[in-house]
Design brief:
α4 (119-131) packs across α6 (159-168). The longest helix has 14 residues, at 274-287. Helix content is 39%, strand content 6%. The chain has a 4-stranded parallel β-sheet with strand order 2-1-3-4, sandwiched between helices. The chain has one domain (7-298): Rossmann fold, CATH 3.40.50. By secondary structure, the chain is an alpha/beta fold. Keywords: Transferase. InterPro entries: P-loop_NTPase, Sulfotransferase_dom. It holds the Pfam family Sulfotransfer_1. This is Sulfotransferase domain-containing protein. Residues 32-278 form the Sulfotransferase domain.
Length: 310
Amino acid sequence: MNTQSLDWPRKTREMHNHHFDSTIWNDLPMRDDDIVIATYAKSGTTWMQQIVGQLVFQGAEDVDVGEISPWVDLRVPPKAIKLPAIEAQTHRRFLKTHLPVDALVFSPKAKYLYIGRDGRDVVWSLHNHHARANAAWYEALNDTPGRVGPPIEPPPASKRQYFLDWLEGDGHPFWPFFENVRSWWEIRDLPNVLFVHFADLKADMPGEIARIAAFLEIDVDKERWEAILSHCSFDYMKAHAEKAVPLGGALWEGGATSFIHRGVNGRWHDELLAEDVAAYEAKVLAELPPECADWLANGTQRDAAAPVAA
């Protein structure tokens, strides 16, 4: 393929809020072998970081992905601290972003993994993440200098109300969901972009990891394959959660194991009313192309019951 003739994405805006400072990407020199893990949030991000870390380090024990795979556009710590730390890394870097494509500086040389998950499952995982945040989490996001816009407040106890606020408020209190999915879907056919779905990872983790390895052009030592699979399992990640979670889980009540919570889909079935489901599905069809809407709900395979890390 002649990549010189492709229409590569261009950054057209900045995003700022209690979490984001997208300007950091303007100042980050990209390397040709960089890997960027992109999601909305709570779509399997940490699981994908673990998978990529295991592939890069060939199944090594206790790879500290929470430390070495930073969320680049998170505004804390500030870029004056974060950028030198990223640039000092000598291994193949795998970076995390929750930005839509048009707020990101896109490199034609880097590899991009986009992970999707049904929005209802995203919100249920997001509520756990938000409800267990401790005072240090709020202090870091709300009180650190440079915040743009209102502070983030504690969530309502009702998961249904949290979902309705998120749906009606276009991702409230975090950031828009559908524009994130749509922006990445529009570039899914680029040769350096791979789409992965949470449900597919659950249904066939070995097959999906093999597909990811091929995309990243990583030759896996056959003798390390079983170790890689073991270290990417829910049980292993739960037992070693402090190595997968930012700051070892210090910002959440219950620590790292509360961050890697249950990792199952469909919990919303017990709490959403029929009209809530109908409102969500109508919103999906209004915001996304039909093929994208189907992929977001189902992936390329049907869901399975086994738990995974989220």
